[in-house]
Amino acid sequence: MCGVFGVCAKQGIDVANLTYFGLFALQHRGQESAGMAVSDGSSVRLHRDMGLVAQVFSPAAIKELGEGSVIALGHTRYSTTGSSRSENAHPVPFHHPLLGPGAIAHNGNLLNADALRAQLVEQGVIFETGLDTEVMARLIENTHGRTWEEVVRRSFARIVGAYSCGVITPNQLIALRDPYGFRPLCIGYIPLPGQPAHVVASETCALDTVHATFVREVQPGEIVIMDEHGVRSASFQTSNKHAMCIFEFIYFARPDSILKNCELEDARIRMGHELAQEAPVDADMVVAFPDSGTPAAIGYAEASAIPFREALMKSRYINRTFIQPDQSLREAGVMLKLNPLPRSIKGKRLIAVDDSIVRGTTTKRTIERLRAAGASEIHMRISSPPMRFPCFMGVDIGSTKELIAAGRSVDEIRKHIGADSLHYLSIPGLIRAIGRGTSEEFCRACFDGSYPVPVPQQLEMDKMQFESPSPQLAKV
Ligand code: SF4
Questions:
Q1: Planar angle of CA 314, 271, 464, nearest 5 degrees
Q2: How far apart are the C-alpha atoms of 140 and 152, rounded to whole Å?
Q3: Could you read off the pLDDT of 384-434 as tens digits, one per residue?
């Protein structure tokens, strides 16, 4: 989970301000830190810090970044490697001995970062952080080539894992997506008089914010180069398998974004339709765990003809619970975040819909609060399959120890969260709701453990820790 946004324009266009707005639209992808690198054609300047986009960039900072700049690259960060501190904010700067300065912003997770780091250390390279993005930066610095394109292509040929990246150099903005296409990345343009400004963004909602026209998604294994001559692209790595993260469709990406030509709000409503068909139940109202459970709850209500009602008020000022980096912060976030409406739910049988259960913290506490407010029955319906396996491709799902569904049956989970019934959407139901290809075209490893890329043994050992393997898990 991270957001990447970049603009390449000509003199007179405020690229820093455009990037600031683009990052605002991508705030949901990372709330720990934010940063921006800008280029005026010869030098690269950087501003990054801990906090939300609005906290990191004062009006004065944006004004200063914008002066004379023609290219900008911004990032919102949620940590998957490297701890939560300001030195780890992106973009990460580098200096190539022949070509000069630059910076890189990354969404994803490298699977061979440790091996590459060890090779670079052996060559005498000194690292300042534990970031896999710094491995990319140092790799770029230590790769021969006469042009940035050559250097970047050669560097990324050595990288294995999930990455959707932006690289800023004095005169180019380069976008790359790994050959599996785990994380989203798209390109657009702003039709300005004289010469359009070219834009790269993690999600289409960020293009909308700056009035950019969506052109297309960056293809898996594609490198896109934007500069004063326009846009050109090439394939730099191929794979016979694509594996876009299916969780982007369920939860991560914003509902007003479009992925694989699919508007996510519509797909999430269809997930609710599928849930209602798979697990109907007699009840008085359908309620959502807002906001991420709302589209599927609306879909469930449509398909079941049971009215949708608001039962939980969400504080608009609490960050997303799931992506808080620390468990104690998550717990406090849950309590602050959702408040029941007792008059609507007293004595009522509820179908409560959410998009996922990760650690179970939110679900258990919220069910307790709904019961305390008078709900007579609570039937949980989840618009994704149980998450039983960790993610190695850029999402902080943690180890199996932190996953409520790892090693537990659905009924054990139901008892743990205190629901009267519990049903998770099946993988076939999820694929039908998305309506864009077969299950083989997505990464769904956190549900079924079939990782599209072999995971290094040490990483696997760190995260696969089942306390009580259940017979059900053995069947997956
Ligand atoms: S393991 Fe899950 S969260 Fe990670 S990339 Fe695959 S589908 Fe997405």
A1: 80
A2: 6
A3: 999 999 999 988 777 888 899 999 999 999 999 999 999 999 999 999 999
Residue bearing tokens 């939980």: 312
Written as six digits, the tokens of 90 are 């992106």
Query: 163-202 in b/e burial notation, b at 16+ Cβ within 10 A?
Result: bbbbbbbbbbbbbbbbbbbbbbbbbbbbeeeeebbbbbbb
In whole angstroms, what is the distance from residue 464 CA to residue 209 CA? 40
Question: Which ligand 1 atom sits nearest the alpha carbon of residue 444?
Answer: 7
Domains and CATH numbers, the chain: 2-242 (3.60.20.10), 263-435+468-475 (3.40.50.2020)
Going from the C-alpha of 181 to that of each of 23, 159, 164, the distances in angstroms are 21, 14, 8
Full DSSP string of 194-210: SSPEEEEESSHHHHHHT
Residue 277 Cα to ligand 1 midpoint, Å, equals 25
Residue from 2, 391, 447 whose mutation best tests the ligand 1 pocket (most atoms within 8 A of CB): 391
8 is catalytic: no
| Contact 379 CB / ligand 1 (< 6 Å) | no
What SS3 state is found at 327? Answer: helix
Q: One of 2, 165, 205, 391 is an active-site residue; which one?
A: 2
Question: Residue 440 Cα, ligand 1 centroid: separation in angstroms?
Answer: 13
Atom of ligand 1 nearest to the CA of 397: 3
- The model carries a pTM of 0.92
